[in-house]
Design brief:
Elements (H helix, E strand, L loop, with lengths): L3 E4 L8 H9 L12 E5 L2 E5 L11 E5 L10 E2 L17 E6 L4 E6 L2 E2 L6 E2 L4 E6 L5 E6 L10 E8 L5 E7 L4 E6 L4 E6 L14 E7 L5 E7 L4 E6 H6 L7 E5 L4 E6 L4 E6 L4 E6 L9 E6 L5 E8 L4 E7 L1 H5 L8 E6 L5
């Protein structure tokens, strides 16, 4: 099965004149578009296109992944109106997205655009929930009161408590915190992580979070900063009640700088090492040791994976990969080469 590949980003504009208007006004610069996160439902893939640079007309899109798809055109999701920069009811810059067990699509919008050029805060950060079936916005959660101007919101997790209550967790790397939002109570709070979690941090670091589901139904959040040497975990029940003190487990030393790229929505975490194309799978039921890291994927084109996501229709894992280090350094010519690949084997 060949990966689906595209360069930069092409959009389904309402008409040709809209496209030329977007291009002439600098609202559409194809080489500035890059997909970094993905979610699959059936033959549809939802993609986050962060507004790292000017010229990204839509920050949340969907496209088709039917076998035999050779060209990729993005359709703004759920519509063009919700992509407008500067309109705080719309999406400003989507950096992560999650589809939950009820086919609700949750997106994390930082509210900050042009982050690789001159960052501009257009709107407060928020999490938006949409029905995949209808495209309707079900809920908008403002994170304004739970963040500060220095916040760097990076990853999003959605969790359901045993009683059915829905919770959202967001990593705030700059404030050493995980934001917890209880949807039923319609309130949130910050769980500030102990200083040990940041030992060895660089100033602008990445805080990865991954939710693991145990066979018994309980969940656990695994987290680590890219530059630090250790991996930690916390049972979700403690996170949901806001009592993390003394409950965080130190799982030991990382053999290298791990980039956590996703889970199988079960007990496995997928990761790669910084700058390396090889993807590993670690079953969290086994000890955190190199002997238990199984190599499961390597891009044929040395692309780096930014997200590993379950493809339930095909009973496999998909990987979204690109030459994003070149994109970050503005060395991409026509645009970043992005691929949606397939992990071989059953997970």
């Amino acid at each position: 099965s060949q990966p689906i590949q595209w360069t930069g980003g092409q959009f389904e504009f309402p008409c040709a004149s809209t496209k030329s208007l977007f291009k002439s006004s600098g609202k559409f610069i194809p080489k500035n578009v890059i997909a970094t996160r993905a979610q699959l439902i059936g033959d549809t893939i939802y993609l986050a296109l962060p507004r790292y640079r000017k010229g990204v007309p839509a920050t949340l899109v969907k496209t088709n992944v039917k076998p035999g798809t050779c060209s990729t055109t993005f359709k703004p999701y759920p519509c063009w109106d919700l992509q407008e920069e500067g309109n705080c009811k719309a999406l400003q810059s989507v950096v992560d997205l999650v589809v939950d067990q009820n086919e609700v699509l949750w997106v994390l919008d930082t509210g900050i655009v042009n982050t690789l050029e001159t960052p501009v805060r257009k709107c407060p950060p928020k999490v938006v929930a949409m029905s995949v079936k209808t495209g309707k916005v079900l809920k908008t959660v403002s994170l304004e009161g739970l963040t500060s101007s220095s916040s760097r919101l990076q990853y999003l997790v959605v969790d359901y408590a045993p009683d059915g209550g829905c919770f959202v967790y967001v990593s705030d790397a700059a404030n050493r915190a995980i934001i917890v939002y209880n949807l039923q109570a319609d309130r949130g709070f910050r769980v500030v992580l102990p200083k040990a979690v940041t030992a060895g941090c660089r100033s602008r670091d990445v805080l990865y979070i991954a939710l693991i589901r145990r066979d018994c139904g309980s969940t656990e959040l695994y987290f680590t900063y890219l530059s630090t040497s250790k991996l930690f975990s916390l049972k979700s029940e403690y996170l949901r009640s806001g009592v993390a003190d003394g409950r965080i487990l130190d799982l030991g030393k990382k053999p290298s700088r791990m980039v956590i790229i996703g889970t199988d929505n079960g007990s496995a975490i997928f990761f790669r090492n910084e700058g390396d194309a090889e993807v590993y799978r670690w079953d969290t039921n086994s000890t955190f040791a190199e002997a238990n890291f199984k190599p499961v994927y390597r891009s044929q084109t040395c692309q780096l994976v930014t997200h590993a996501v379950p493809d339930y229709k095909r009973n496999t894992m998909r990987v979204l990969q690109s030459n994003f280090p070149d994109y970050m350094q503005n060395r991409v010519g026509c645009g970043a080469i992005q691929q949606l690949g397939l992990m071989q084997g059953c997970w």
